[in-house]
Amino acid sequence: MKVYRLKRQFDGYKKGTQFYMISESEFIGVKEFVLRTEDLTNRIAINENELLKNFTLIKEIF
């Protein structure tokens, strides 16, 4: 599992909010990622451009 942190305010979440990547999928060259907040109460689905622009990888948990 990967842990990400917001670089800037995004979709109503404050800068610095931590997210867990729950799933990654690709369909005909379009990648989609599902992230959940640290407390697992909220989820967002974003594309690759939004992930790269707004999130920083903190660590990978095995």
Describe this entry's structure for a reader:
Helix content is 11%, strand content 55%. The chain is globular and about 30 Å long. Strands 4-3-2-1-5 form a 5-stranded antiparallel beta sheet, covered by helices on one side. The model has no long low-confidence stretch (mean pLDDT 94). The protein is built from 1 helix and 5 strands. It has one helix spanning 48-54; strands spanning 2-6, 18-27, 30-37, 43-47, 55-60. It is mainly β. A hairpin with a 2-residue loop joins strand 2 and strand 3.
Strand order in space, largest sheet: 4-3-2-1-5
Strand content: over 45%
Termini, distance in Å? Answer: 6 Å
Total strand count, please? 5
Give the number of helices. 1
The average pLDDT is 94
Q: Major sheet, described briefly?
A: 5 strands, antiparallel
Percent range of helical residues: 10-25%
Overall radius of gyration: 11 Å
Q: Strand-and-helix sequence, N→C?
A: EEEEHE
Q: Assign the structural class, choosing from mainly alpha, mainly beta, alpha/beta, alpha+beta, or little secondary structure.
A: mainly beta
